[in-house]
Design brief:
Butyryl-CoA Dehydrogenase, subunit A, domain 3, 3 domains, 4-stranded mixed β-sheet, 4-stranded antiparallel β-sheet, oxidoreductase, Acyl-CoA_Oxase/DH_mid-dom_sf, flavoprotein
Length: 382
């Protein structure tokens, strides 16, 4: 087995790393402090082709694969997670459902702008009373003539309210299954549709330069042709999307964990106490060694899950393992990096303060750590 990257993957990684270092790092602190969405950075990522990485060239994509997206996410998150989650959600949750399950007409209509980064899309799954129980959908859609009429609400939706958001795909109960349970389908709701209201941006702990909103649907009418995939398959479709997305979140988590290592090494060489750099102290060296170990093993976990996915092999368990290990490792690394920085780690001018605030959501979003453990245990036969 060989875990090295091909020439193409290596070139992509270096390109994104340079962009993150030269373009994102110098300005993201200001965006973060002002809670502003970084439209210019998103535009530049679109020009680089990052939003089109895993999509076919016929739809304006780069003809790459999901692992390429993960490499880009890791490098972006080494510097900032707000920019990284904007890319992750736009691709994995916004465009991917259309690419995987949409009709040819839907793909030709929506994907080119999404692949170029000229527009963003979101997926509305979580509801105020649902949380981890995504199957407890209360939003409803009924057929009226040649239209769906949608009523309900969604919460914690990324990329839902930017100036360049084109649409949100929402899950809704569209009937009852043969077994008496809810029939859940996915439906595209374009921006500006009457009755579709996007709430103000949340006041969040972290990811302050990303867009997260609550959505409301009050007799929203869209054509029947806005159904994504088969009627009644919306929940099953999104479970597949979540499996893939967990690999992407693992990659983002690795980036944050590695960024904590990078910043801690730099600080340990610069900061002096008691007449010498703090990095001369074995206690600091061991903390950073543990941080590097967590980042390295988490990277191997998401590499393995991505390789299985691209090979067409089962990968649900490996994706859950990668997401669980990487997200918890990111939180541990952020805590350690803040400790190494001491009082300066509590100051927003230092990147580790941002990383500490951004890390916790990684144990929650796209499936909590408890959900990942449940998935792993079930796959082991429990």
């Amino acid at each position: 087995m060989h875990f090295g990257l091909s020439e193409e993957y290596s070139a992509l990684r270096e390109t994104v790393r340079a962009f993150a270092t030269d373009k994102v790092a110098p300005v993201i602190g200001e965006f973060y402090e002002q809670r502003r969405f970084p439209y210019e950075l998103v535009r530049q990522m679109g020009q680089m082709g990052l939003f089109g990485l895993p999509f076919d060239e016929k739809y304006g994509g780069m003809g790459g694969d999901y692992f390429a997206l993960c490499l880009a996410l890791e490098e972006l998150a080494r510097v900032d997670s707000s920019v990284a989650i904007t890319l992750e959600a736009a691709v994995s949750l916004g465009a991917m459902p259309i690419y995987r399950f949409g009709t040819e007409e839907q793909k030709e209509k929506w994907l080119p702008r999404l692949c170029r980064g000229e527009a963003l899309a979101a997926f509305g799954l979580t509801e105020p009373g649902g949380g981890s129980d995504a199957g407890a959908t209360r939003t409803k859609a009924v057929v009226d003539g040649d239209e769906w009429v949608i009523n309900g609400s969604k919460c914690f939706i990324t990329n839902a309210g930017t100036d360049i958001t084109d649409f949100v795909t929402v899950t809704a109960v569209t009937g009852t299954t043969d077994k008496g349970g809810p029939e859940i389908s996915s439906i595209i709701v374009p921006r500006g549709t009457p009755g579709f209201t996007v709430a103000d941006e949340y006041s969040k702990v972290g990811w302050l330069a990303s867009d997260t909103r609550e959505l409301f649907f009050d007799d929203v009418r869209v054509p029947l042709s806005n159904l994504v995939g088969e009627r009644g398959r919306g929940y099953a479709q999104f479970l597949r999307i979540l499996d893939e997305g967990r690999i992407a979140i693992a990659a983002l988590s690795v980036g944050l964990a590695q960024g904590c290592v990078d910043e801690s090494i730099k600080y340990a060489h610069q900061r002096e106490a008691f007449g010498r750099p703090i990095g001369d102290n074995q206690a600091i060296q061991f903390m950073i060694a543990d941080m590097e170990t967590r980042a390295h093993t988490s990277r191997l976990a998401y590499y393995d899950a991505a390789a299985r996915m691209l090979a067409g092999e089962p990968f649900k368990r490996q994706a859950a393992i990668a997401k669980l290990h990487a997200s918890e490792g990111a939180v541990d690394n952020a805590r350690a990096a803040t400790q190494i920085h001491g009082g300066y780690g509590f100051m927003n001018e230092y990147p580790v303060a941002r990383m500490w605030r951004d890390s916790k959501i990684l144990e929650i979003g796209e499936g909590t750590s408890e959900v990942q453990r449940m998935i792993i245990a079930r796959d082991l036969g429990f």
